[in-house]
User: Which sequence fits this backbone?
C-alpha cells in the first residue's frame, strides 16, 4: 500500500502497478484502459508517493506476476545486482536528481544500463519534465555496428523507407534512389512489405541488396516481415542483413504477435550465423509503440508507458542495431494530440537510452489524431537535441503504403543543418565519394547523369 | 516563379512515373519548396475535414426513397466526435433509444444494409447512393429480402453486429467511411458479416475497401459485393473461410 495526503484527502494506491498508472502524465490510452488518475491532484499525489519509493522495492514487487509472464522472468533473472549497488540506496525521486547531476556522466550511465529495470526507468520518467528527459538522454551514448557506425555523438541517421502500396519494384526503387540522393538511409534501407509472403519478401530483399552491392553503399537492408518469415528465408539463403520484429511488453501481447522469447532466440541465432555485418554484428531491428499492449488486450492493468518500457527488456537481450518507437501510428484513442505524442516519444527515447538501447523514433501521426506537421517539427527538433539515433526518411513525409505521415528526407537535412549533425561516418564518406554532399556535409547540386539515376533506366 | 525553376531543374522528376510517392519535390536550401508544401497541407486539410464531416441523413434519406425501404436513423453511445475518437468502444455500441427502435423491425431479411459515418462521413455521403443504385435492383431481381436501411452516426464496424442481430438478418453489409489518407479522404469500405451477433471479431468478416470514384468504382464494387452476398448466403459463412475459398478478395 502506498499513500499520500493532500490537505485532508488521503490518496491510497494499493500496489506499485496502480501507483505507476496513477502517476503517469495523462494520455487517452490510460483513460481507455481505466487506469489513469481521476484528477490532477490525484496524479500529483501519486507522483509524490512514487518519489519516495526505494528502487529496490521494484525487485521485490513485480507488476505482472513472475509465474505468469516470461517478460517479468526475463527482467528479474537478467538483473545485474553487482552494478545495482551504485544506485540501490536511492528512491525514485532521488534517482531522478542523481540522473540529472553533473557527476552522472555518459560513463556512469553506461555502468548502470543492465541494473535499471524497465519499471524503474518508467517510474523515474513519470517524475521528469520533458527537459529532464532530454537532458539525461543527451548524456547517454549508445553505439551500434553492422556495416557502419550508428549513434556516435554529433551524428544522426535515418531509415530510408521507400514503401509502395503494391510492392512495385520500380516504385520502390524510385523512392529509394530519391532518398539516397538526399543523403538518407544510413540506419537502414527498410521496406514495409504490402504482403508478408516469403516469395515477395525474398524479391524485395534481393532488390535492395543488388543496389547496395552495385553501389557499394555502407548500409544495411531490411524487409520488415514477421520473424517466422525471416527464419524461413534465411534457411533458403536470402540476403538477410537485419532481422525485424514488432515486440510488446507482456507475454500476452507477444503471443498475439505470434512470437515468444524462444522464437526470438532462434531468429537471432539464425541471423547471426549469416555473419553479413562487416564491422559489427548488431543484427536485430525492433519496433515498439505505446498502446500495443492495450490494443492486444494484454496489458494486465499496467499503464501503457510502463508496458512499453517492459518491451525494451526484450530488445536489450538481443543487442539490436536499431530500436524504433513508432510513436504516433496507433491513433488518438492512445495518444490524442501533438502534446501526448511528443511526451510519449521523449519518454520512450529516454527510457530506451537509459536501458542501453540504440533508440530511434518514428516521428509520426495519423489523420484522425489532433496533430500536424508543426507538432512533428517540434518533436523532431527536440529529439535531435536529445541525441536520438535515427528517424525515418519518407518521400515528402507521406507513406503511401501505410497511410500515415512521418518525417521526410528534407526533415532530416533540416535537423542536421540546424544542429550541426552528420550522418554515420562511413555513409558520409560514401555520400562525398558519390558527389551527393560536399566535405562539409552540404547537399550538392544534383548531376542529372548521376549513376544512381542512369542505372535506373 | 522561383519554384518553377526548382521543379524544372530537378533531375529526379523522371522517376515520378513509377510511384505516387512524393518524390522529386525539389528543395530550397534543405527545405521543401512552397508549392509542394502547400499541396501537402491541402491534402491534410481534406483528410481533417473528412474526419469531422457529418452524416448527411436528409440527403441520404431523399436519395434512397426510390428503393421503397424503411430507413432508420440510429446513433452509437459516443455522443460527440471527440468522444468517438477517444473511445472506440462506445462507437461499437448502439445507444438505448436505437436498440429500442430496432425491436419493432425484426424482419427475417436476407440482407441488412447498415450505413455508418466511421472516420469519413464524406465518403459515405458521396458513395452510398451510387453503389446501392446498382446493387439493390440486382438483389431485388434475385428475390432476396432486404431489411430496413439503417443510418448510423458516430459508429464503428462492430456496431453492425448488434444492429443485424436485432433486425434478425442473415447477413449484414456495412458501408463505412475509412480512415482518410493524404491521397484519398472519400474512401468507403464494405464489411460483410454472416449471422451477426454482438461479440464477433474481425476474423468473422470480409471487407472490400477503397470504394470511391478514383478507386474501386461503384459498378465493379457492386458486382463484387453482389457476388460475395450470394457466396456468403449460399455457404452460410463469412470471414477467413469465405476469403480463402472465394479467391475474389485480395
Assistant:
Amino acid at each position: 500500500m502506498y499513500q499520500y495526503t493532500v490537505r485532508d484527502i488521503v490518496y491510497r494506491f494499493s500496489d506499485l502497478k496502480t501507483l505507476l498508472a496513477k502517476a503517469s502524465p495523462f494520455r487517452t490510452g490510460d483513460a481507455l484502459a481505466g487506469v489513469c488518475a481521476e484528477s490532477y491532484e490525484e496524479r500529483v499525489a501519486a507522483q509524490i508517493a512514487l518519489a519516495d519509493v526505494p528502487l529496490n522495492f521494484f525487485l521485490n514487487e513485480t507488476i505482472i506476476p513472475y509465474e505468469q509472464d516470461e517478460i517479468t522472468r526475463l527482467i528479474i533473472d537478467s538483473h545485474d545486482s553487482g552494478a545495482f549497488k551504485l544506485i540501490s540506496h536511492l528512491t525514485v525521486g532521488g534517482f531522478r536528481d542523481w540522473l540529472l547531476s553533473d557527476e552522472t556522466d555518459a560513463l556512469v550511465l553506461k555502468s548502470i544500463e543492465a541494473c535499471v529495470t524497465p519499471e524503474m526507468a518508467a517510474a523515474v520518467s513519470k517524475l521528469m519534465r520533458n527537459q529532464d528527459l532530454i537532458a539525461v538522454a543527451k548524456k547517454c551514448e549508445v553505439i551500434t555496428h553492422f556495416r557502419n557506425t550508428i549513434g556516435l555523438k554529433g551524428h544522426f541517421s535515418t531509415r530510408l523507407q521507400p514503401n509502395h502500396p503494391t510492392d512495385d519494384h520500380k516504385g520502390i526503387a524510385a523512392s529509394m534512389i530519391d532518398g539516397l540522393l538526399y543523403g538518407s538511409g544510413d540506419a537502414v534501407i527498410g521496406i514495409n512489405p504490402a504482403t508478408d509472403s516469403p516469395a515477395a519478401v525474398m524479391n524485395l530483399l534481393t532488390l535492395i541488396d543488388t543496389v547496395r552491392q552495385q553501389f557499394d553503399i555502407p548500409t544495411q537492408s531490411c524487409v520488415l516481415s514477421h520473424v517466422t518469415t525471416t527464419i524461413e528465408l534465411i534457411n533458403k539463403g536470402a540476403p538477410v542483413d537485419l532481422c525485424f520484429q514488432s515486440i510488446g511488453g507482456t507475454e500476452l501481447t507477444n503471443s498475439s504477435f505470434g512470437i515468444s522469447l524462444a522464437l526470438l532466440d532462434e531468429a537471432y541465432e539464425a541471423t547471426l550465423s549469416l555473419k553479413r555485418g562487416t564491422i559489427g554484428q548488431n543484427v536485430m531491428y525492433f519496433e515498439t509503440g505505446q498502446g500495443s499492449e492495450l490494443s492486444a488486450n494484454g496489458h494486465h492493468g499496467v499503464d501503457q508507458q510502463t508496458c512499453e518500457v517492459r518491451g525494451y527488456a526484450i530488445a536489450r537481450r538481443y543487442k539490436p542495431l536499431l530500436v524504433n518507437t513508432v510513436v504516433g501510428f496507433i491513433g488518438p484513442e492512445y495518444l490524442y494530440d501533438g502534446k501526448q505524442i511528443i511526451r510519449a516519444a521523449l519518454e520512450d527515447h529516454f527510457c530506451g537510452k537509459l536501458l542501453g538501447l540504440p533508440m530511434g523514433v518514428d516521428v509520426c501521426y495519423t489523420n484522425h489524431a489532433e496533430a500536424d506537421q508543426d507538432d512533428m517539427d517540434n518533436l523532431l527538433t527536440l529529439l535531435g537535441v536529445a541525441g536520438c539515433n535515427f528517424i525515418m526518411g519518407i518521400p515528402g513525409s507521406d507513406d503511401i503504403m501505410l497511410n500515415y505521415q512521418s518525417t521526410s528526407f528534407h526533415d532530416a537535412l533540416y535537423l542536421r543543418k540546424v544542429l550541426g549533425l552528420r550522418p554515420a561516418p562511413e555513409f558520409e564518406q560514401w555520400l562525398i565519394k558519390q558527389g551527393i554532399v560536399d566535405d562539409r556535409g552540404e547537399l550538392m547540386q544534383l548531376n542529372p547523369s548521376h549513376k544512381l539515376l542512369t542505372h535506373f533506366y | 516563379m522561383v519554384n518553377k525553376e526548382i521543379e524544372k531543374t530537378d533531375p529526379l522528376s523522371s522517376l515520378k512515373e513509377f510511384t505516387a510517392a512524393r518524390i522529386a519535390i525539389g528543395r530550397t536550401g534543405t527545405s521543401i519548396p512552397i508549392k509542394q508544401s502547400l499541396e501537402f497541407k491541402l491534402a491534410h486539410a481534406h483528410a481533417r475535414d473528412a474526419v469531422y464531416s457529418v452524416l448527411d441523413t436528409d440527403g441520404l434519406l431523399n436519395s434512397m426513397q426510390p428503393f421503397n425501404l424503411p430507413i432508420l436513423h440510429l446513433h452509437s453511445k459516443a455522443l460527440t466526435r471527440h468522444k468517438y475518437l477517444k473511445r472506440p468502444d462506445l462507437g461499437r455500441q448502439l445507444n438505448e433509444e436505437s436498440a429500442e427502435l430496432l425491436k419493432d423491425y425484426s424482419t427475417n431479411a436476407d440482407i441488412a444494409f447498415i450505413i455508418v459515418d466511421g472516420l469519413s462521413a464524406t465518403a459515405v455521403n458521396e458513395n452510398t447512393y451510387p453503389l446501392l443504385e446498382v446493387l439493390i435492383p440486382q438483389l431485388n431481381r434475385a428475390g432476396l429480402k432486404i431489411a430496413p436501411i439503417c443510418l448510423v452516426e458516430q459508429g464503428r464496424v462492430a456496431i453492425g453486429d448488434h444492429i443485424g442481430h436485432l433486425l434478425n438478418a442473415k447477413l449484414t453489409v456495412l458501408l463505412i467511411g475509412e480512415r482518410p489518407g493524404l491521397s484519398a479522404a472519400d474512401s468507403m469500405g464494405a464489411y460483410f458479416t454472416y449471422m451477426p451477433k454482438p461479440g464477433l471479431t474481425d476474423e468473422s468478416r470480409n471487407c472490400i475497401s477503397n470504394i470511391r470514384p478514383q478507386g474501386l468504382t461503384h459498378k465493379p464494387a457492386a458486382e463484387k459485393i453482389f457476388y460475395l452476398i450470394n457466396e456468403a448466403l449460399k455457404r452460410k459463412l463469412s470471414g477467413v473461410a469465405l476469403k480463402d475459398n472465394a479467391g475474389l478478395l485480395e
Q: What stands out?
A: The interface with chain A takes residues 10-12, 14-16, 18-25, 27, 29-32, 36, 40-41, 43-44, 47-48, 50-51, 85-89, 119, 179-183, 185 of chain B (CB under 8 Å). Residues 57-246 of chain B form a domain with the Rossmann fold fold (CATH 3.40.50.11240). The longest strand of chain B covers residues 171-177. The radius of gyration of chain B is 21 Å.
